[in-house]
Amino acid sequence: MFAFDLETAKDTSLYTVAGAVLLALVAVWLVKQVVTKVLSVVVLLAIAALVWSQRAELTDCADTVRQTVAAGAVDDTTCTFFGQDITVPGRNTITGNDVPGAPTTIAPITIPAN
User: What are the structural domain ranges in the chain?
Assistant: First the structure.
């Protein structure tokens, strides 16, 4: 399974947006047919917009997880990324306290904002 952290995902999405915009500019310069040129630009800009919106979703998810953990919650948090539900493990899952009947009280911790 491929896993990466929030900063890597944000950086990767930013590079993807820049690459798509750059490819759109190259397409304008290289492609001679007007219809093909317009379609190429529209598709590449749509990809850039989609990736940018998912980057915002990823940031919102990280903020939600920070708030949940800072509030002392111990349950998993579910976020949506490209239409798929992604579960971010909570303290119970990470510490192995997700066994029924196990104590779930953990003192709140402070997580610095980026």
Answer: 6-95
Q: Among 82, 83, 106, 84, which Cα is nearest to 93's? A: 106
Beta strands in the chain (DSSP E): 77-81, 84-88
Ramachandran assignment for 112, one of left (phi > 0), alpha (psi -120 to 50 degrees), beta (any other): beta
For 73-110, how does the pLDDT look when each residue is reduced to its tens digit (9 = 90+)?
777 777 777 777 777 776 666 666 555 554 555 555 55
CB 62 within 8 A of CB 6: yes
114 to 45, 84, 96: CA distances (angstroms)? 29, 25, 27
pTM to 2 decimal places: 0.46
Q: For residues 59 and 65, give the distance between their C-alpha atoms in angstroms, rounded to a whole number.
A: 10
Q: Are 59 and 10 in contact (CB under 8 A)?
A: yes
